[in-house]
Amino acid sequence: MYPAYIAVAKEQQEKRGLLSFQYALEAEKIHSAMFSKAKQYVDQGEDMELGDVQICTICGHTVEGPIPEICPICGVTQEHFVTFPEE
């Protein structure tokens, strides 16, 4: 759905909408990979160990482990990330 939304935002010259959809598309690629990994464990009847998860409050980039210094999707600094579970 995001490619279609991106195309419409470009056509309508909605710069903020375009940026939002581009961020969402990139974040969803990461989410898909994380869900695929979790499903592999479920399919094997195992629990997956999961450390702290860091989420960028600007674009939704999600990473397990330490907070990145710079978000690889939107470029904000690490103070824009929240940690789950919260410390």
Low-confidence stretches: none
Number of strands: 3
CATH class: Mainly Beta
What is the ordering of alpha helices and beta strands?
A: HHEEE
Spatial arrangement of strands, main beta sheet: 2-1-3
Shape: flat
Portion of residues in beta strands equals 5-15%
| Helical segment count | 2
Structural class: alpha+beta
CA(first)-CA(last) distance = 35 Å
CATH architectural label = Single Sheet
CATH overall fold name: Rubrerythrin, domain 2
Average pLDDT number: 94
**Share of residues in helices:** 40-55%
Oligomer: single chain
Query: Measured on Cα atoms, how large is the radius of gyration?
Result: 15 Å
For the sheet with most strands, the description reads:
3 strands, antiparallel
Number of discrete domains? 1
How would you describe what is shown here?
- There is one protein chain.
- Helix content is 45%, strand content 13%.
- With 87 residues, the chain is α+β, with helices and mostly antiparallel strands.
- It has a single domain, classed as Rubrerythrin, domain 2, CATH 2.20.28.10.
- A 3-stranded antiparallel sheet has the order 2-1-3.
- A hairpin with a 5-residue loop joins strand 1 (53-56) and strand 2 (62-64).
- Helix 1 (2-11) runs antiparallel to helix 2.
- The radius of gyration is 15 Å and the shape is flat.
- The termini are far apart.
